[in-house]
Amino acid sequence: MPDTPTPAALHKTAPAGSPTSSSGSSGASAPKASAERGRTALAVGVVEKIAGMAAREIPGIHALGSGLTRTFGAMRDKVPGGKSSMGRGIKAEVGEKQTAIDIALVVEYGVVIPELATQVRENIISAVERMTGLEVVEVNIAVNDVHLPDEPDIEEEDESGSTGQRPKLQ
């Protein structure tokens, strides 16, 4: 088959100013030319953080993650030098061109959950596609709990429920 390029021919670039073997229009060869200059790899954590920030922008979300995830996160936040994770409660699978996202939510009491889920899904898709260029193929949302107005947060329980006092370091 004479039209099939060899692997060596795929890596060769045309000399400057010479026409390419594509259709000849400058619009068709421009994306290919920029792709030949390198690739961009996105870590899973990048997509998870973007999705987490986008989800938190929607009113009616109390927290991200399951109860166990939030408990461990609250403990990790108290460790000196520990950072809170914006991607807590979010799992992403990232390919070269597409991503899929799973998110666990705790919603405020009184919120219409199907409407909230639609808003969260649309905001995550918009933010991730705009910032990463990846196509979001799905956003799966699991509502794990409803936060009642008189219920304390896990972080508040940890602070008020501690019986032993730590000595202050000087």
Automatic annotation (TrEMBL):
Ranges annotated as biased composition (Low complexity): 12-33
UniProt cross-references to InterPro entries, sorted A to Z: Asp23
Region of interest (Disordered), ranges: 1-36, 149-170
Origin: domain of life: Bacteria
Biased amino acid composition, Polar residues: 161-170
Compositionally biased spans, kind Acidic residues: 151-160
Protein family per UniProt: Belongs to the asp23 family.
Protein name: Stress protein
Organism: Kitasatospora indigofera
